[in-house]
Amino acid sequence: MYSIKKEQKLKIVKCIKPPVASPRSEKWAHLNCIKSRTTYYISTHGRIYSNYGRGVLKLGLLSGHPMFSWTPPKDELLTAPKRWSKEGKVDPRQCMTVQRLVAATFIIKPSPMYDTVVHLDHVKINNKVDNLRWAKPKEAFHNSVKSPNWRWSQKGEAGQKLTPDDVMHIKVLLDPANKTHTIADLADMWGVAEMQIFRIQNGDIWGTVPGYMKPKVVQAKIPDADIVEIKNLINQKVPGVEIAKRFDIGPTQVSRIKRGKYYNSKS
């Protein structure tokens, strides 16, 4: 009922002369489905050529999917969706998966209901046009379940992707003495979320499985006399950062004392 259609209808696209050495089966066209300050060309093999850098772009991965980012024209910046950098500043660049760009350029969308692009061979980096199909959300979900990367637990419980043997292997790789992989690498290897690897490392889940766990930092109890003095300083509008430095505690602890989360009985 939710099977992906094997046949597809390709758009009639005006192809250009290949900007780089390409096999005969690879066709190039202008990347017109986005508005950018730079001219880009996209191929039926999922490669993107920049007219500014005069070369094929090296694309980064997000959850295993190649991602393409570009800067919109100045007149489009006000209406473009806002993105924020790690420094808390507005990032003018926009991004989209390469599979969606290839499909939008070369493949006819059957109807607006087909708003997801899937890979027939379940390989996320294989963005050749004959490997991509437009699909409905339910079709895309059932297609992902058929992927060999989809993991079910041995007990058959939905959502429980890891087994005790998997966790023991992960804990060996998390040990600082053997650590050669990042948390993102481990999450990609086992097909789980990065937060799950992070919680395994902290011992929040799978704590009974032997192996490395990050030592927990136990905060020392603040003396009652200091609590009273901290509350007095809070009432005097002293900044929380100064109070934290004076008593050698974290600003978060000061904030929680102020909100009554900690030491509420002390006055």
Word description of this protein:
Helices cover 28% and strands 14% of the residues. By secondary structure, it is an alpha+beta fold. The strands form four sheets. The chain has a four-stranded antiparallel beta sheet, covered by helices on one side. The termini are far apart. 16% of the residues are buried. The model is unreliable at 152-159 (pLDDT under 50).
**Alpha-carbon distance between the two ends:** 66 Å
Could you tell me the strand content as a percent range?
5-15%
- Structural class per helix/strand content? alpha+beta
**Main β-sheet: number of strands, strand sense, barrel status?**
4 strands, antiparallel
Number of helices: 8
What radius of gyration results from the CA coordinates? Answer: 26 Å
The run of helices and strands is EEEEEEEEEHEEHHHHHHH
Name the shape in a single word. Answer: elongated
Strands, total number: 11
**Widest beta sheet: strand line-up:** 1-2-3-4
Short note summarizing the structure:
The protein has helices at 98-106, 137-145, 164-174, 183-190, 194-202, 224-235, 240-247, 251-258, and strands at 28-30, 40-43, 48-50, 55-56, 60-62, 65-70, 83-84, 90-91, 94-97, 116-119, 132-135.
Features:
alpha+beta, 28% helix, 267 residues, four-stranded antiparallel β-sheet, 8 helices, single chain, 14% strand, three-stranded antiparallel β-sheet
Secondary-structure map:
Elements: E1 28-30, E2 40-43, E3 48-50, E4 55-56, E5 60-62, E6 65-70, E7 83-84, E8 90-91, E9 94-97, H1 98-106, E10 116-119, E11 132-135, H2 137-145, H3 164-174, H4 183-190, H5 194-202, H6 224-235, H7 240-247, H8 251-258
Antiparallel strand pairs: 1-2, 2-3, 3-4, 5-6, 6-9, 7-8, 10-11
Helix pairs in contact: 4-5, 7-8
